[in-house]
Amino acid sequence: MSALLELRDVEARYGPVQALRGVSLEVPEGAIVAVLGANGAGKTTTLRAVSGTVRRSGEILFAGKPLHGGPEATAKLGIAHVPEGRGTFVDLTVTENLRIGAYTRRDRGLRADIERMAGYFPWIHERGGQRAGTLSGGEQQMLALARALMSRPRLLMLDEPSLGLAPLVVREIFRLVRELNEKEGLAVLVVEQDARIALETAASAYVLEVGRVAVSGASADLREDEVVRRSYLGY
């Protein structure tokens, strides 16, 4: 399976603090890949390096071509980034949030895509006119996911989708991620602290430690490796 996204020796800094130290990873076309690690390991910065919201060095390739520019440029190429904390527009309605998600497009398929999202998130129909800020935390996370999908991305990047949510809601979100991957062939790069559900969902994973890849491999192998579980995954 060919690589859709490749990071080669990527480094990133926040002022004097080096957050990434030569990170290399890849996301194959149509695959789900997880990035795991403790707080401060560099997980979120890895996604920010791809979307261009942090200064970086090294090489990032998307569909075999060098990736340059900031969030708008990467979005137009087909990369959707759902940041930590959901980031819905709380004063706008559900439908308005969805329309904003399609800002990179100029076609007439927006209504059809809202219907497509309602197929995955049935409550969108009945809540279309409701302000996003009045939704539950789980509904806001699902709206953020649906909004990202409105751009019809080739790669979806999710940053801590389980943050602050009840276990049942987390399982539903990861079920939807698997369904989108299986039905639409969507590639997913997910940063997640809940190693169990991430490894259940992803085909492969990278574990970061102080800005470096400490270990990587197939999720099934990482789940069975007792040393990896105890040292890096916390269970």
TrEMBL record:
Keyword ATP-binding found: yes
Ranges for domain ABC transporter: 5-235
GO BP annotations, alphabetical order: L-amino acid transport
Cleavable signal peptide: none
Keywords tagged on the record: Amino-acid transport, ATP-binding, Nucleotide-binding, Transport
Domain of life: Bacteria
InterPro entries named in the record: AAA+_ATPase (IPR003593), ABC_transporter-like_ATP-bd (IPR003439), ABC_transporter-like_CS (IPR017871), BCAA_Transport_ATP-bd_LivF (IPR052156), P-loop_NTPase (IPR027417)
Molecular function via GO: ATP binding; ATP hydrolysis activity; branched-chain amino acid transmembrane transporter activity
Family, similarity comment: Belongs to the ABC transporter superfamily.
Name recorded for this polypeptide: ABC-type branched-chain amino acid transport system ATPase component
Species of the source: Gaiella occulta
Lineage per the UniProt record: Bacteria, Bacillati, Actinomycetota, Thermoleophilia, Gaiellales
